[in-house]
Amino acid sequence: MPSVFIKTYGCQMNERDSEAVAAQLVAKGYALAQSEKTADVILLNTCSVRDMAEQKALGKMSSLAAETRKRRPEVILGFMGCMAQSRGRELIDRLPDVDLVVGTQKFHRTAEHLDALFSGKQDKIVDIDAEVGSESTIREHLLNDPGASLSVTAFVSIMQGCNQHCTFCIVPSTRGGERSRAIDDIVAECRTLASRGVREVTLLGQIVTSYGKREMGRQGDVSAFVQLIEAVHAVDGIDRIRFTSPHPKGYGDDLIEAYARLPKLCESAHLPVQSGSDRILKLMHRGYTRDRFETLVGKLRGTRPGIGISTDIIVGFPGETDADFEATLSLARELEFDNAFLFKYSPRRGTPAADLPGQIPQALIEERHAVLLQNVNEIISRKYAASVGTVVQILVEGPSRRNSTRLEGRTRTNKIVVFEGSPRHVGQLLDVRIERAGKFTLYGDPAILNLNVNGS
User: Are strands 442-444 and 449-452 parallel, antiparallel or unpaired?
Assistant: First the structure.
């Protein structure tokens, strides 16, 4: 059977979608190629959140087409994901060498579309239509394949789509409205993962805290999302639970309280604030104020001292004044995030923000971004340095990505720790003493303390 290579751009949702498509293709008899240079099918799973991601994917496909059509004209080239959904046939019109365009609700159709292309039944395929029930079709995982490293962590997609409609974001048009999977279905997937050696799951959704609002609603004071966390918490073998990406509006008291009473729920929260200015937050259609966000962070830190809190911030949103930017800068200094992902605003076609007055010159965006980045990095560096001398629990995930002779794992607060160890430690929960701190990495004492072979 033909071999397939998938290159992924963008978020963890895209990573999870690529993993599921690959697993479905393998189940159909396709092989996974180690490189695009040897693959019979090359698929780019795309992102539309920022223009740079789209341009990278378009540039990559253009170079692939130029190279493969000369040497291997039979290779099938395709786009999947968010850019495929938003642009559709336009991609084939722009790049005639592209054979396949698969939208965000059609990932599970990829194998049958490739079969049709290989058999000659169809010449070009564009499939971006909505499909009822698509949120429950992406559940396969590529785990424990022969020759592959044991996976001890896994992403679990719990829903698709977004109803938030932030003015800067194209996701609602590329992913559609919110659609949630059943709790029993998700729990069954987690049980399967646990049986295959997974010890940590990350629950994924565009706005993960909106899970099940329409489909199942609240039970008393407990939201559907917390009901789901409780159900996954009961799965034997799963020792850690994370989730991303939430919306600050979705953090009710029940979710905050869950951090105190559910020990498997890692003390880590990603809270995208986007701006520290109430005026800009209103223009963004975020639905909360700076004060409400600060109160939320205070509640989380009060409920779970030491919790790691990360955020997203957009610099240069249309109409952002010096005072608005200073408000964002002061928020970052005040709240001292453990990590922050900073984005330079770029207009996305079809979003309200693209038509707002007061578009900021790129040079000013770059200047503000550099100032904020410097401040944020100084805070993060100071917080990492404060970890030196402490003992932390890590889940050992495998060889370090930068030095394969060492191992790495993550703390419960989502910090990477690199240490000297042996392959037998992979998949174990270990206590290590932090000896030094790098820019975004901690380094553990080779003398592992309190070895927990069974993670109990």
Answer: unpaired
Phi, psi of 301 (to 5 degrees): -70, -30
First to last CA, the chain: 44
Burial label, 197 (beta-carbon count in 10 A; 0-12, 13-18, 19+):
middle
Q: Which residue has the tokens 């706005």?
A: 207
Q: What pLDDT is stored for residue 454 in this prediction?
A: 41
CA 204 to chain centre: 7
305's CB contacts (< 8 A; 6+ apart) are: none
Residues 6+ apart with CB under 8 A from 84: 46, 91, 101, 102, 103, 104, 128
pLDDT in tens, 215-247: 888 988 999 999 999 999 999 999 999 999 999
User: Angle at the Cα of 120 (from 117 to 121), degrees rounded to 5?
Assistant: 85
Find, among 303, 289, 296, the residue nearest to 271 by Cα: 296
Query: Do residues 368 and 324 touch, judged by C-beta distance below 8 A?
Result: no
Beta bridge partners of 78: 43, 100
Please report the pLDDT score of residue 452 as a whole number. Answer: 46
Q: How far apart are CA 352 and CA 348, in angstroms?
A: 9
Edge-first strand listing for the sheet containing 200-204 = 153-157, 200-204, 240-244
CB of 332 closer than 8 Å to CB of 377: no
The ranges of the chain with pLDDT < 50 are 146-147, 450-456
Q: Distances in Å between the alpha carbon of 214 and those of 46, 139, 188?
A: 29, 21, 22
CA gap 367, 441 in Å, rounded = 27
Query: What burial letters (b/e) apply to 164-192, b meaning 16+ CB within 10 Å?
Result: bebbbbbbbbbbbebbbbebeebbebbee
CA distance 209 to 244: 8
Distances (CA, A) of 117 to 65, 66, 76, 98, 130: 17, 20, 8, 12, 22
User: HSE-up of 426 (CA within 13 Å, CB side)?
Assistant: 16
> Minimal CA–CA distance to 143: which of 200, 108, 193, 204?
193
pLDDT of residue 133: 86
CB 276 within 8 A of CB 322: no
